[in-house]
Design brief:
305 residues; alpha/beta; Rossmann fold; 2 domains; 4-stranded antiparallel β-sheet; 10 strands; globular; nucleotidyltransferase; Rossmann-like_a/b/a_fold; SO4_adenylTrfase_ssu; sulfate adenylyltransferase (ATP) activity; nucleotide-binding
Length: 305
């Protein structure tokens, strides 16, 4: 009798788990949406959603919470990718929230619209009656993430209470909510940054070019290299700009997302660099995330991503 062993690689196991999550949520909820920024994590989620429902199209729209302070390369990629797939794009605009008086824009040198995304996100969820929002959070980002469940409950005010999380036994998810409540769903919960890059290489996924080494005008603030080309970071006269060979480990609000010095211009070089680093992605590149675990947990309780 011939014996066959079916061994799955780590990426195959992670992929299968994420596809299962997508299918379960699509079956249980009425109006899911995938949060898509054009960044690497959301690009991987989009590929996983494609595989989950192939050959049918992705059965839900994607939504970008747009601060208005974006890297042009990322927005160009976002629009092109959505058009290629023929899916609906919902834009939750922070600028619209400012114009309508829903939020007040921060002032000063370190002003950022990153925190203002919460109101724009919750308003869009209420307007479109989304009951499940797929997000790209990973366990290795920061400690407060580890208190999340895969299906993470939010109350009628969009707030998260870590003491009120539902138990998750193996891959059994509690999807019961009442009108006005919703859940955040994290298909990448067991992935790491290195897993993301390995998957990008295996699937031959296109990424925005700023993820790879390029020459850019930047300036230094608090140990971060901030973008000097878009003008969103409010560079002071005592913060001289200079050219450097850099790349971005994450993409977000250009006012607070830092670049890292790097010569990694190919996928293999980036993966080698990520495998050797001991500094987390957010700790190295996000000015507003250099805070304590308790502070990050408070932000999430307010409805933050």
């Amino acid at each position: 009798m011939q014996r066959c062993d079916y061994l799955l690689s780590q990426l195959d196991v992670l992929e299968a788990e994420s596809i299962h999550i997508f299918r379960e949520v699509a079956a249980e909820f009425e109006r899911p949406v995938l949060l898509f920024s054009g960044g690497k994590d959301s690009i991987v989620m989009l590929r996983l959603a494609q595989k989950a429902f192939w050959p049918a199209p992705i059965p839900f729209p994607v939504m970008h919470v747009d601060t208005g302070h974006n890297f042009p390369e990322v927005i160009e990629f976002r629009d092109r990718r959505v058009a290629d797939l023929g899916i609906r794009l919902v834009v939750a605009s922070v600028q619209d929230a400012i114009d309508s008086g829903r939020v007040v824009e921060e002032k000063g040198r370190r002003a950022s619209r990153n925190r203002l995304q919460t109101t724009a996100l919750l308003d869009a969820i209420e307007e479109h009656r989304f009951d499940a929002a797929f997000g790209g959070a990973r366990r290795d980002e920061e400690k407060a993430r580890a208190k999340e469940r895969v299906v993470s409950f939010r109350d009628e005010f969009g707030q998260w209470d870590p003491k009120n999380q539902r138990p998750e036994l193996w891959n059994l998810f509690n999807t019961k909510i009442v009108q006005g409540e919703h859940v955040r769903v994290f298909p990448l919960s067991n992935w790491t940054e290195l897993d993301i890059w390995d998957y990008v290489r295996r699937e031959e996924l296109e990424l925005p070019p700023i993820y790879f080494a390029h020459t850019r005008r930047v300036f230094e603030r608090d140990g971060l290299l901030l973008d000097a080309e878009t003008g969103f970071a409010n560079r002071g006269e005592d913060e001289p700009e200079f050219e450097a060979t850099v790349r971005y480990r994450t993409v977000g609000d250009a006012s607070c997302t830092g670049a890292v010095k790097s010569s990694a211009a190919t996928l293999d070089e980036v993966i080698e660099e990520i495998a050797a680093t001991r500094i987390t992605e957010r700790g190295q590149t996000r000015a507003d995330d250099r805070t304590s675990e308790a502070a990050m947990e408070d932000r999430k309780k307010e409805g933050y991503f």
